[in-house]
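Hello,

Our lab assistant flagged a job as stuck in the queue for most of the afternoon. It eventually completed. Since we weren't sure the result was trustworthy after the delay, we are filing this so someone can double-check. Below is the sequence as submitted and the structure that was eventually returned. Let us know if re-running is recommended.
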Amino acid sequence: MLTTKCFIMSTKSRHVFKRTQRDYSMAFKLTVVNSVESGRFTYFQAQQHYGIQGRCTVLVWLRKHGTLNWNSTKRFTVSSELKKTPEQRIKELEASLEEERRKVLFLSTAMKIAEQQYGMQFKKKFSPKRQSGSKKKKG
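-- returned structure --
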């Protein structure tokens, strides 16, 4: 069901029709979203093609009803494109591990220097493990 309220603005012998409110059906919204996500239109082109007046209306529909990620500041991406291949993930994890190794080396060196020059103690004093009182008796 499509309802439209219009009024006429008179501007120097020109009559301009301006919509004040328009209710779009869910089927219409999904059609617009599908045409944008399939690559047939950009969201701005879809707005013009379907006669949608609001500048952000189509984008709001895409965020609500679409399958693409329209929330980022970058161009939209398909959620399956966000997944990395195992090789890419391994390289990323190896780089992260190497960075962590460098941090540990830096901090341990800084601690050794602080211990030698300033007499600071960083080594953790371990206490014996506490025995839990819920041990079962054999018998």
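-- support follow-up --
The delay was a queue issue, not a problem with the job. The result is valid. The chain has four helices and four strands. The mean pLDDT is 76.
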